TrEMBL record:
This is DUF3887 domain-containing protein. It comes from the Bacteria. Residues 1-25 form the signal peptide. Keywords: Signal.
């Protein structure tokens, strides 16, 4: 039985892809207000040269969080995670979650990166796959660009058909 396709989402973003959500930095009670302000400012700045070595770690941590959302059937939360600068309403998040739940009544039991490719000029593309024990698959494509020590999402697509996503490479 053929499953209906989930629509593709394509947006330009100016946020770091998969960067962990950063809240206010915690400081101990003995720090001065100036030290606290410096710590808070550093915690909310985009990736800088000094933090470049942590860029891959941040990517991997964020990818793990994104995978967790998808594995739990929370497509809305996963998309909101990738685009924190664009506020999705609770109705929009619920609609995205419902789409995924409607297509996949069983929970996802596995996930992996199908293809990951570094392109010229700081561009990179990733294809992620998620599956159920029934052999149902969900695919996500992400195109990103690294520039000035930050990584931006340029294009996101997701679909139930392998070739629809794989053909983007």
């Amino acid at each position: 039985m053929l499953r209906p396709k989930i629509y593709a989402l394509s947006v330009a973003l100016s946020v770091a892809l998969f960067a962990p959500q950063v809240g206010m930095a915690q400081t101990n009670d003995t720090s001065s207000d100036a030290e606290s302000a410096e710590t808070d400012e550093a915690a909310t700045q985009p990736l800088t040269i000094e933090r470049r070595t942590n860029q891959r770690t941040s990517f991997n941590e964020g990818l793990a969080q994104f995978n967790e959302f998808i594995m739990q059937g929370q497509l809305g939360e996963a998309i909101a995670f990738l685009r924190p600068d664009i506020e999705l309403g609770q109705d929009e998040i619920a609609t995205l979650d419902a789409q995924l739940t409607e297509l996949y009544s069983d929970v996802f039991t596995g996930q992996d990166t199908v293809r990951s490719e570094s392109l010229k000029g700081g561009f990179r593309q990733e294809m992620l796959a998620y599956w159920t024990d029934k052999g149902e698959y969900f695919y996500v494509y992400v195109l990103m660009h690294s520039q000035n020590d930050s990584r931006r999402v340029l294009h996101i697509e997701y679909n139930t058909e392998f070739h629809s996503v794989f053909s983007l490479f």
